[in-house]
Amino acid sequence: MPRDSTSAFYEENAKTYANRARSLPKRQLDVFLAGIAPGGAILELGCGGGQDSAYMLSQGFQVTATDGSAELARQAEALIGRPVKVMLFQELDADSAFDGVWAHASLLHVPRAELPDVFTRIRRALRTGGLLHASFKAGEAEGHDGFGRYYNYPSREWLSALLTKGGWRNLAIKESDGGGCDGKPTRWLAVSAER
């Protein structure tokens, strides 16, 4: 995340954000984990308060948790009891190291122009047959929310074209209605794909 209003929001509100009432995306987590061999290696990009990592660890997976915010990483470390790597998506530099990448409501902050490179980095980090889960707030044009956070707001078609061009296989994008921490109704896109 660039040093801007988005990263400033997470640094300044880390404790409140990490401890907010949030429903675990358990159904999506269970579907994702079902496609990965027991004990498989998972990279979480943008772990926030660490709740999703905690769940995956409780299910016996090896989880590498990362976040772009040092303050949020500290909050997640307190929850999961292990180090969280402070890293921007654009700094991911792994090769065939993971069976899955979990990026729930995190890649939606990547500037549109940088998404192709970030997806290439994620694909390289996965082993052949490795799975990606990512979710985005749907839209037609990039913009900011009421907290000043940047969102890429892709359409289903735009995202599908980008991932297909990037060589991803077994691509599926599911749409659903939900919300976000700004309390506004939100149309969500949940992506699953395979290296």
Structure overview:
This protein has 195 residues and is of the alpha/beta class. It contains 7 helices and 9 strands. Strand 4 (98-103), helix 6 (115-125) and strand 5 form a beta-alpha-beta unit. The radius of gyration is 15 Å and the shape is globular.
Topology record:
Layout: H1 5-12, H2 14-18, H3 26-34, E1 41-45, H4 51-58, E2 62-67, H5 70-80, E3 85-86, E4 98-103, H6 115-125, E5 126-137, E6 143-144, E7 150-151, H7 156-165, E8 169-178, E9 186-194
Parallel strand pairs: 1-2, 1-4, 2-3, 4-5
Antiparallel strand pairs: 5-9, 6-7, 8-9
Structural class: alpha/beta
**Helical residues, percent:** 25-40%
How many distinct beta strands? 9
Sheet having the most strands = 7 strands, mixed
What is the terminal-to-terminal distance?
24 Å
Give the topology string: H per helix, E per strand: HHHEHEHEEHEEEHEE
What does the average pLDDT come to? 93
Q: Give the neighbour order of strands across the main sheet.
A: 3-2-1-4-5-9-8
Contiguous helical run count: 7
Integer-rounded radius of gyration: 15 Å
State which percent range the strand residues make up: 25-35%
Uncertain segments: none
